Predict the structure.
Amino acid sequence: MPATPEVQTGLEDVVAATTRICFIDGKQGRLIYEGYDIRDLAARSTFEEVAHLLWYGRLPTSAQLAELKARFAELRTLPSALAERIDTLPISANPMDILRTAVSSLALFEPEETRPGPSSIGGAQRLVAVLPTILGQFHRRRVRRPAPEPRPELSQAAYLLYCLLDREPTELESRAMDVALVLHADHELNASTFSARVTASTLSDLYSAVTSAIGTLKGPLHGGANERVMELLDEIGSVDRAEEVVKAKLARHERIMGFGHRVYKVEDPRATILREWSRKVGESRGNLRYYELLRRVEEVVHREKGLYPNVDLYSGSVYSLIGIPHDLFTPVFAASRVLGWTAHVLEEYRDLRLIRPVAKYVGALDLPYVPIGERH
Ligand code: SDX
């Protein structure tokens, strides 16, 4: 049998591509988008500016930003046939399944946007613009409210909240969501982005690549963790029960959602920023219950397992305080990460190489073929 190099299960630490989009320094806990530190972008930029940065490799001028905002507003509306199709889907469905189905169906109405290659920038802008509308079309039907209007005056963050809430978002809520969208926009070769790049590397189209990514993000070890963090907080109930509940889970070798990371060996810088927003939004509501519970859970998990929080630990508390239903947390993650997925697909098209690793075969060899009549 041919010798194969040692198996890197989960492709851990395998360098599978070069990229200019995102750099993660897991030891220092730094996250860089196209040369800019995430702390600067989260504090001083907007999701629309970061979209321009990840697609074009530079922050926009005022004119370029105005043009991109207008483009997003134009591209928010769904084909009526797709809106009608979404309205036939079961309201009990998992919203990530709705998102995956709708993006996959959208391609049927827009073949020109899905052409593989640099022209896919049109499809990339379309998908970033329209994901909130898809979520709004589905969620508003669940709560018996009319389908969302394009609302061109709203930023992407405010528009997303308008689609998911039964009221206009406040300034603070829109800014909190804008920061969350910036923080979740990209994260190098995370599982869902890697799915998108594998799909694009076969020269399949952008909408197929994003459909692959949505299915991947749905998993609780990836995008689904922030929903489960809120379930944990509901289970704990009060700060004085945190130690007992968390230690019992750890004793049963259960994973505490929102902690640990394949790349960060210290605190995820996004968790640092979201912890602050959880406190700010909690204070604005006069409700620091989630924030205080999470701080206590952090203390116990760090003491018992030496683990640090990741991006999913505090995001759910911000979304919950704003009034977003828990089953829409991962779709909100997708509404941001679709930017990173599309940026990586465009990068893959520019420097295409079919992604095809090998496996170490550990099965039997040279078995004699036994006709069915002689098998037992
Ligand atoms: C995201 O890749 C990305 O960049 C993802 C992401 C992005 O922006 O795209 O950052 C978004 O997915 C964040 C992660 C969200 N998922 C969770 O919070 C789920 C809980 N976390 C774990 O499942 C885990 O930490 C992972 C999946 C995130 C990373 O797992 P690894 O790198 O495969 O680590 P591992 O499973 O090998 O664990 C190493 C040790 C083990 O202990 P031992 O069994 O060796 O004693 O750490 C323990 C694990 O049991 N451990 C945990 C734990 N995470 C790791 N123990 C308890 N709770 C945890 N959360």
Notes: Residues 225-322 form a domain with the Cytochrome p450-Terp; domain 2 fold (CATH 1.10.230.10).
